[in-house]
Specification:
alpha/beta; 426 residues; 8-stranded mixed sheet; 17 strands; globular; 9-stranded antiparallel sheet
């Protein structure tokens, strides 16, 4: 699903652009009982929303503190107030006109809390923050409306091939983590693994997300073609750099379509599609909605998608469908619906590898077969037991989804060797 479709359903839409910073209200700390010093420091946890887990970082100090939501580009937003009473902590923030409160109690080295916003109460368990070592360099690539920040994961040897890794749909960041599904570090593991095997990689947060949130501040301004243009700019920059012996593209999920369109325009050495849809968005989306919507809403969705595919915006939609088809997201959908992935893959001149997991809940084997049909000379490789976040997972839904938020699980053992071998076949 689309980034903006999903973000509208998350808790905050934490776009702090243009927000005036506020400082902690120190007056509220007067007269409180002796605080527990164990509170001081950084904590991390997931806000358990109806739409999934939203990872946050809370930095608690004696008279102040900050909130960060990396997946949505919010960094070190200051508290309005913080108050400690023995083993209890109360935090207040004012964000985009919304009052947010975190109320917690320190138990057994963790904070059991409730996150409150706009009348909603969401469970939150905070544990001591573990600093993640940064193993990449940040680069700036000139793109439309500014510079795109990318992560350069250098290979163990130089010169080397370089591969651009493009993340999937929704609020999925450069590491493969989502504000909805959780932290699994799939693309981070892929980048670091390839670098250890002599292949440099570049990955990035798409515009409007994370490091590049400022490049897209209004939902209605976003189009799929912007994503493609950004990928083309990165590839052209890499191709002009003599430090690389060859340039490749690896696209995951929606990143597969972005990647193959960028590959068409740049003539890269190879393209790898991982869990890429082979059918148009309307076909895939209606397939997903069929078991979730009442017949009347399903028929309405069909009519709306038909209009959007013809380039026509729809002025009305039932309240139950606003998250999918609200007016501000329709330009993005129109720009995406014009593409048929299998037809577009046929136009890619470079070598192609199609990778599909057999326990993927989101992209099915029929999509891999459609891509293969679009480019018969492409290599199709099934990964037995691999799911959508590139981990070994069971077919049952609960067990499968549990891997989406478990960064301790390694990648499917055959994925990295297969990609490395394919890139090195040049």
């Amino acid at each position: 699903m689309k980034k903006w479709l999903l973000l509208c359903c998350t808790l905050l839409l934490l776009s702090a652009c243009g927000q005036k910073e506020v400082t902690a209200d120190n007056q509220e700390t007067k007269g409180q009982s002796a605080m527990n010093e164990q509170f001081i420091g950084k904590w991390e946890g997931n806000i358990e929303t109806p739409n999934g887990a939203l990872p946050i970082i809370v930095d608690l100090q004696k008279d102040s503190g900050t909130l960060s939501v990396p997946a949505q580009g919010l960094s070190n937003f200051p508290f309005q107030s913080v108050k400690y009473t023995d083993a209890n902590v109360k935090v207040s923030l004012h964000l985009n006109g919304s009052v947010i409160a975190i109320n917690g109690i320190l138990k057994n080295g963790q904070i059991e809390a409730t996150f409150q916003q706009n009348g909603g109460n969401f469970p939150l368990i905070l544990t001591a923050y573990k600093e993640q070592p940064v193993t990449y360099e940040k680069l700036k690539i000139p793109v439309q409306q500014g510079d795109l920040t990318v992560a350069l994961q250098k290979a163990s040897t130089s010169p080397s091939p370089v591969a651009l890794i493009i993340a999937g749909s929704g609020p999925t960041d450069k590491d493969g983590n989502s504000a909805l599904a959780g932290k699994n570090n799939s693309l981070k593991m892929l980048a670091e693994g390839l670098a250890q095997e002599g292949i440099t990689t570049v990955r990035y947060d798409k515009r409007g997300l994370g490091d590049n949130q400022a490049l897209l501040t209004k939902e209605e301004d976003g189009t799929f073609d912007q994503y493609v243009d950004d990928a083309v700019q990165i590839l052209q920059t890499l191709m002009a750099d003599k430090a690389y012996t060859s340039v490749h593209v690896i696209g995951h999920s929606e990143g597969s379509l972005i990647g193959l369109l960028a590959a068409q325009k740049t003539g890269v050495a190879s393209f790898v599609s991982i869990a890429g849809a082979g059918r148009p968005l309307d076909v895939v989306l209606l397939e997903q909605l069929k078991g979730q919507l009442a017949p009347k809403l399903y028929n309405e969705s069909t009519d709306i998608l038909t209009a959007l595919k013809q380039g026509k915006q729809v002025t009305t939609a039932s309240p139950e469908l606003q998250a999918l088809f609200r007016p501000s997201v329709q330009p993005f959908l129109i720009s995406l619906l014009k593409y048929h992935p299998a037809d577009e893959l046929e136009k890619v001149k470079s070598r192609v590898l199609i990778v599909q997991g057999t326990t993927d809940l989101q992209v099915k084997e029929v999509d891999a077969e459609a891509l293969k049909k679009g480019k018969p000379e492409a290599k199709l490789l099934y990964m037995e037991g691999m799911n959508h976040v590139l981990k070994k997972a069971p077919a049952d839904r609960a067990g499968n989804l549990a891997t989406y938020s478990d960064p301790s699980l390694s990648l499917h053992e055959k994925l990295l060797p297969a990609i490395q071998q394919f890139i090195n076949e040049e």
